[in-house]
Design a protein that fits this description.
Chain lengths: 292, 292
């Protein structure tokens, strides 16, 4: 493990906190201006944004808003959902992804997170769906190159394999990414999706060696899972995941990019955004930054 | 793929149906005598039993009941839950597993299914928990040998890793099993838990080559998952899993044992048991046995 992860001095802790980023979904109750103002007030300099609220506000206006506030957009969520077999659906998905690439560029982030999509209705062909993901990447890479954007394949937890994301492990995401240049296609390491996998440490090493870690996201795993299993992510420190171990792994693999907290949880959305952000920062400090 | 899986002749279909087994949890509404009578009437000659209803009926009485009816107990579910750190809890778990081994022997089955257990409260050490599973197996193997029983490690879907089973993949289950003789420790291949894994085909091959496939269980994957994600297994053919592909894989790996249908679903439990069994058999015929 690299000593830089230990954050034993104030300077090291400052350096680590400078990488902290708040994903917009964690404080979904905040409008985009409230998010930017709240982060600025809290000394948080990075945000991960989502396409729908950005489009609602206006992409160019959102870009101005964050730029004027001196806030960095660490990622845009999300493109993807390109597993359709139907040619028309597939063409629409690719067009939408080209738009997402342009939006990322406008916002000044080089990281577009991709969630692949699940099995088409009635299909049981996981392998075929995964190959269509590779095909879609091949079509999008030139557009990403033109825009200076990197496509970041996010493996989602295997419980989403049927209906949301046929890419279920970091190994699978890397096998897809490695068909393309590292500066154009990377992977997302998200603790919530990958924590159970006993090979994740070695796969993070593989990702780092290839320069493929495009984003690092944190959420904790808490049970029981809610119906639909979409909105049950835990506040940092509330669950089963050794978050600091993950930071140490990506650090040892050479990753020096943002550490983005992305928690989907309606309980957090019912509280004032500033209170949630303060709690996230406190938990980040306690469970991720501090030495063991 | 071996031609024996194709079941193209009536004799081959008969041979495959002779391996069909109904796990008791699929028709939880049935008492043990109703289960045995219902299976006998339907021409089903194998049942997978659970410890609680068997204990309630009396283990020796249950053994007589199935023997007198000419029904084979294909597996007993389940031992395991031996990830505790506390010495007293650990000793209790091991004692309970020795009892489970004796129950399996009394029932005339050589297959005791083990679900490892999750993380102890407050622990985030998946690796440590997995090592305690290996230690527990080491303590139980001599008892299993004395009783002529095989311990069958069941990897559960990664969504259960925190609270139910730290063994999440067939590769992990095999790595544990391979520390012990094949006749004493095997693995369970359950489609519901393993279908998402792109390495499962090669791992089934590894399991077969080592003589490690102790049981093969079927359920389908349907979404959305219910709260708690325990009782949402799908009727065969209703979901995302290519069940016949799985049969072909275990068949090609040399497995010739029971094919057990184990569906946890309250919707099935609300219907008459005989109707559910007839539907399961029809679905098994359509989605598992028939040629493509």
């Amino acid at each position: 493990m690299s000593s830089s992860s230990l954050a034993s001095t104030q300077a090291e802790r400052d350096a680590l906190f400078s990488r902290f980023s708040l994903n917009q979904q964690t404080v979904k109750q905040w409008s985009l201006p409230a998010l930017v103002a709240g982060c600025t007030q809290a000394g948080v300099r990075g945000v991960g944004l989502w396409r729908a609220p950005v489009q609602e506000y206006g992409v160019a206006a959102a870009a101005r808003l964050v730029r004027d506030a001196g806030v960095t957009v660490t990622s845009l969520c999300r493109g993807g959902f390109f597993t359709a077999i139907d040619p028309k659906e597939r063409a629409e998905a690719l067009a939408d992804n080209r738009t997402a690439i342009e939006e990322a560029a406008t916002l000044g982030t080089d990281t577009l997170v991709l969630v692949s999509g699940g099995l088409p209705p009635g299909s049981r062909d996981l392998h075929g769906a995964r190959e269509r993901v590779a095909d879609a990447l091949g079509e999008l890479v030139p557009h990403a190159a033109d825009a200076g954007v990197r496509l970041a394949i996010e493996p989602l937890h295997p419980m989403y394999a049927a209906d949301r994301c046929v890419v279920s492990t970091l190994a699978q995401a890397l096998a897809l990414a490695e068909r393309f240049p590292a500066e154009r296609v990377g992977v997302v390491v998200d603790t919530y999706h990958l924590w159970w996998d006993d090979t994740v440490g070695s796969q993070i090493g593989r990702a780092g060696a290839g320069g493929r870690i495009a984003a690092f996201q944190l959420a904790d795993w808490v049970t029981p899972l809610p119906a639909g299993v979409l909105l049950g992510r835990g506040q940092l420190g509330d669950g089963a995941i050794d978050l600091r171990w993950f930071l140490e792994q990506v650090d040892a693999a050479g990753y020096r990019g943002p550490v983005e907290v992305e928690i989907f949880n309606p309980v957090l959305w019912e509280r004032p955004g500033a209170e949630v952000l303060a709690e996230v920062v406190e938990r980040f400090t306690t469970h991720v930054m501090h030495t063991r």
